[in-house]
Amino acid sequence: MVDVNSLVQMWVRLLLVVTVCLAKKSLKGTRPNIIIMNMDDMGWGDLGHNGEPNRETPRIDQLAAEGLTATSMYTAAPLCSPSRASLLTGRLPVRNGFYSDNLPGRNAYTPQDIVGGISADEILLPELLSTANYTSKIIGKWHLGHRSPHLPLERGFDQWYGSPNCHFGPYDDKTTPNIPVFRNDKMVGRYYEEFPIHQGESNMTVLFTSEAVSFIHEQAGKEPFFLYWAPDATHSPTYASKAYMGGSKRGKYGDSVRELDAGVGAIMDALNATEQSNNTLVVFTSDNGAQLISKFDGGSNGPFLCGKQTTFEGGMRAPGIFWWPAVIKPGSVTHQVWTQMDLFSTSLEVAGVELPNDRFLDGMPLARSFQHPELEVLRPVFLYRGDRLMAVRQGAYKIHVWTWSTPDHFLVKGIDFCPGSLVPNVTTSNATNHTNQPILFNIEIDPSERYPIHPSNPTYQQQVPQLLAIVKKHEDTLQKGTPQLNWCDDHVMHWAPPGCEELNKCLPAPPSNPTKCYWDH
Q1: Rounded to an integer, what distance in angstroms lies between the CA atom of residue 210 and that of residue 204?
Q2: pLDDT at 29
Q3: HSE-CB for 438 with a 13 A CA cutoff
Q4: Is 448 left (phi over 0), alpha (psi -120 to 50) or beta?
Q5: What is the pLDDT of residues 474-507, one digit of tens each?
Q6: How far apart are CA 281 and CA 491, in angstroms?
Q7: Is 80 part of the annotated catalytic residue set?
Q8: Sulfatase N-terminal domain spans which residues (predicted)?
Q9: Is 143 annotated as catalytic?
Q10: Which of 21, 49, 80, 500 is catalytic?
Q11: What's this model's pTM, rounded to 2 decimal places?
């Protein structure tokens, strides 16, 4: 009997060799600067070029018009921390350890009482780029661990301006400390104190944009740079500066989007002013789908089902824009199925850095898409919720082997990850196993995941066995990383971050009492 999965993988490897050679031949020249703009909870449907009717993102839309749009860009997780860990490691959270197995299939992240952080066994993108003399800077939210040895400057970045966590608060600095803001390896203040956020007004996006523009000017004429720009203004509670408050037809969330759009424009203007545009690859994306439970303080996932926290399209389908004037033809579109883990491998590819060969990488080098957007590598994309494989997409087809939308105990409180989008047997309020009869969609025809293909349909009978074979091989060969998000302890919160002594901002910590974190969905 022919092993269909083996044939598929052999074809993928052959096509990869050919297309990577094409890319390397075409992408000659000096090593480009690399900018990855990773928004926070910004939905696919928030952008004008994706159909948002108010058209309030002109600079991001310009980026797409002058570059390449990837219509199928997936995150590696339906929420912040594991998604970001995978972008920077090229590996699924279940491999790099950014998950919890305290309970099966639960979303876990890095609140300030988390004990763990990104594993020392992982190699991050800036660590590898440093071997090619790249200077790397992160601006904005880190979210991969807030204590040594998990901080950015200990994991390959040369500079940092931002915070280890989201801007939650304000707290009382007694039962819970306010979140610190760092410059490099020391805190320079705390949110809601030295960095005020009041009734949705904050200058943080102004600061993050100014920091990026200054860095670009400073690096002009030097060795190449990697800028990871990760502002968090669109994460609820959203914020914007006074100049942008009240200007959007979409309320406070729209104000945040408009200011971030202006920030994108300022960064692009800085590249043009310093004559670095032709030698800079810019990527625009978001860490997961829009958080629909935030209602008017959240974004839009366009036609896609559900939102953040789910493995439906609305939870893990993100904007995907690439801009590189010397390489990418304006107005290009690719239907290649991407994951943000491919940004890891593709960044190394264009930088001329060899990919690590001592570990399994889920990300693929796909630079050939920049000049050959019509080429598509048939590859599976695995969609996880915590430690549980929920769905797989390959080509036009997606199967759900498990489904779970919003838990019942959330629904009774009016919290719904899929508001107004009840699909029988799909948006289940309990974790539901469909392995014996997976739910199949043609995701290109039905991106809303409302019309499953019936098991009696010949397409179902052809596609499902192939996709189940891919699932089995994946699960049989998967080597899970040690879970880093299992333990919580109030003692490790931001009581005394590095640099607090100089600012007289150290706070007394409670005794250590580690307990297993409870992740309720």
Answers
A1: 10
A2: 60
A3: 24
A4: alpha
A5: 999 999 999 999 999 999 999 999 999 999 999 9
A6: 42
A7: yes
A8: 32-353
A9: yes
A10: 80
A11: 0.94
